[in-house]
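From: lab user (bench 3)
To: helpdesk
Subject: output format question, protein + iron/sulfur cluster

Hello, I'm new to running complex predictions and I'm not sure whether the block I got back is the full result or only part of it. Here's what I submitted:
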Amino acid sequence: MLSESILRELREVLGGKNVLSETEDLLTYAYDATAAMRRKTPDVVVAPKSTEEVSQVLNIAQKYGLPVYPRGSGTNLSGGTIPLEGGIVLSLLNMNRILEVDTENLTATVQPGVIIQDLNNEVALHGLLYPPDPGTVTTATMGGSVSESSGGLRGLKYGVTKHYVMGMKLVLADGKVIKWGGKTVKNVTGYDLTALFTGAEGTLGIITEILVKLIPAPETRKSLLGVFDDVDKAGRAISAIIRNRIIPATLEIMDNMTLRTVENFTHAGLPIEAEAVLLIEVDGYKEVVEREAALVEDVLQQEGAVEVKVAKDEQERERIWFARRSALPALAQKKPTTVLEDATVPRSKIPEMLKAIREIAKKYDLLIGTFGHAGDGNLHPTILTDERDKEEMARVEKAVDEIFQVAISLGGTLSGEHGIGIAKAKYLPLEFGEAGVRTLRRIKEALDPEYRLNPGKIVLRKE
Amino acid sequence: MGIYSTLTSIEGELHKCMKCGNCQAVCPIYKETRHEVGVARGKISLVEALLSGETEMTEGLSERFSLCTTCMACNANCPCGVRFDRIILAARAEAVRQKGLHSAKAIAFGALKRQGLFDLGLKVGSVFQGVALKRIPGRKSGSRLRFEVGMGQTKVFPNLAKRTLRSELPEIVRPAGTAKMRVAFFTGCMINYFYTDMGKAVVEVLIENSLEVVIPNGQGCCGIPASVNGDVESARVMAKRNLREFENMGADALVVACSSGGSAWKHVYAELLSDEPKWRALAEKWAEKSYDIAEFLVDRVPFKEEGLGRVERKVTYHDPCHLNRGQGIYAEPREMLKKIPGLELIEMKEPGRCCGMAGSFSLTHPELSDQILERKIQDIAQTHTDTVATGCPACRLQLASGVENADLQEDVVHIVQILAESYRAGKLEPRV
Ligand SMILES: Cc1cc2nc3c(=O)[nH]c(=O)nc-3n(C[C@H](O)[C@H](O)[C@H](O)COP(=O)(O)OP(=O)(O)OC[C@H]3O[C@@H](n4cnc5c(N)ncnc54)[C@H](O)[C@@H]3O)c2cc1C
Ligand code: SF4
Ligand code: SF4
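Helpdesk reply: Thanks, we reran it on our side. This is the complete output you should expect:
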């Protein structure tokens, strides 16, 4: 509990409505979308409406030595918004205005609380698109997705969030406001702060304004489904598509375990006997789409697909993607706890990674369903378990360790898009080495020496 | 034990929730407040905290549970199939078991319990109207009443009917010639006391289709206002009373023109009475033959199309939450409207978005209710229609209030009134 005088100061700055301090409200900020995380309630939740107010909150936090946990929609999958040490949860949801859409320079300026889909609805009026589309595109905020550098289904062709950020306004741990970047395509002035703060998970500063790049929306699109009786064949098909110089907007995979579960849940008519399916979408000008779709169909057949389905209309297309979107929720229904991993490997290593995951599942006697952005090499091995079962959870932990080791040994990374947060902080040395982690820590301490911002995430205090 | 009897009955629903936050995309309350407690995920975590003993039932908690219009939009958008409507109803019932009903609500529901008293209450209300409800200068629709709902906002109420529907109509209305079947009409309170025009349209249309209509005099409030607020005991009394009265009169089918009434007969009664096998069986028997009026006239006894006259209206249709998501009825009303000659149906953006009425929610959370309504009215305005049709008297009240406050020139009616209008017009048109 915070003293009444601190609460009063916060209320003076923000107005009473934007300061929540009753237990019944605080309890609802103790979690995010990450499974099997310990809940922790903050002492207060504040929802500022301007950069100035954010800065004042940080001044108050500094004065009383309180940690500050920035929060968008709380849909991240790495414990990023859990207020581990109590203190202040700073919700950016009241800063939800689209400040500008510049149709000549193809940019948009937004406040961090804008929901990604709302931005897309707005720019669509001008025939434009903001491509990053995580599964949570209708709920996640711009601030949260920039802070995670979220990917999505379109990552293969269009890249991920970090490829679209051109500048920011940001409040530092000491309350000072900085601003950089601009609408120019080129900019090499000074260090690349955009790269530093994109994906920083709220540990280095609070983003209060974002300038992003837009692109012309593709004219049309076409979806295909390739069915394989062998995972290796599916893996080779992925490489073959790219080798044929086609970059689909989307190239996803689901394994047998995922397929069965999704079919059971959605009754979408998926081939449950298949060892793997590839879900593919090509987009662009009509003529190009027709040509590429036909080519993809050929390649899939050549690589030994037992069946190839081409979506004939919007309804069939929607069915394919509904099945894909249902992968995680469907798997989540099977067991009480869903441990979703995000290990990513070079795309050519996908078959090896899939095989390794299956072996790990067998070795530790666990249910693991794998699906993900195959074209990006970004798989989501999903372990179905029950956090109340201590013995099984111990095996889960070992399995996760091993999945990370394999990913890194294949030249991959711990996280493709979900971030490090609390969940993966302890694995950081595996990828960076001691000197690497020390470098991250020095960056953190240079900007936030008191670990005021989102403490307990990514870089931990030296013991 | 059912959701109205114990909180543990919904543990399975809670387990399904994976905290993905998808419900945020559609929750009308969360859209306005942007507080996690407004959305299903937030209230689910509160119920979890309650069950785990991390918190106990407090006044504050029961207040948070009241933050829900029960619009079921979260159900429909939940990838895990969480039935949040069941969770919130169980949580509210638990709140009442532990903390008692808010005194104001207790008085209202207590009064509804015995119909005589409710009539009296409303008569007192008509006196009370002179004080709390200010008559406003009427427009084409005649004078209306404004009810000060606090925060400087007003809700425009329709006038109380001079005579209630059930006192105006005989208990049995027969068509000319032989009747195809005997249909019981459950009027619900709003149609009985405020919107008798809707009730008369229902009877008119049924008669036009050669159906005998029974309107049991002893019927009362459907009990939904009580059950959604956790007053399970009152709701059970009302459920039994209605079941008894309709069973006594007997009918081949039962129709309602109100989304709460429909939910009550189809789903809620059996659930409310699930611990009493005899009553439960009776509730299930009636659930089997209960229909919303549009559903009945499209799927069960297709309404006759000959004799329909031109109705020159540009109509937009608002889906009542408990008709659309609650009963899966969204195609039938549109089908009905499309068959009416001269009528043009123009869809609004998000016709299934909650209007913010949600019964007593609009009185306990007037500011929120109004904010939600405002978005709806903007969507309606954009259609440039002259008529808003819907399938529920409660939505009609809310929409009419919003339309009036926004100074839009729109009629707000139940679709069955348009059908009745069409039959009437048909009688005036020269035969060819
Ligand atoms: C079902 C499901 C599917 C998903 N699919 C994908 C997917 O396909 N691809 C993908 O990449 N991710 C995916 N995610 C993860 C998640 O949705 C994204 O990371 C999302 O972008 C987070 O946005 P948010 O607004 O919820 O951020 P939050 O969860 O609120 O915050 C995320 C992080 O950013 C920080 N933060 C938030 N706002 C600010 C700010 N203004 N300034 C500084 N720091 C801030 C927080 O402290 C936290 O560390 C999925 C999640 C779920 C539940
Ligand atoms: S959408 Fe469903 S599973 Fe997701 S948080 Fe809401 S209720 Fe839970
Ligand atoms: S039922 Fe409607 S108001 Fe209630 S939580 Fe779900 S979406 Fe929100």
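A quick orientation on your result: The CA atoms of residues 28 and 372 of chain B lie 6 Å apart. Let us know if anything else is unclear.
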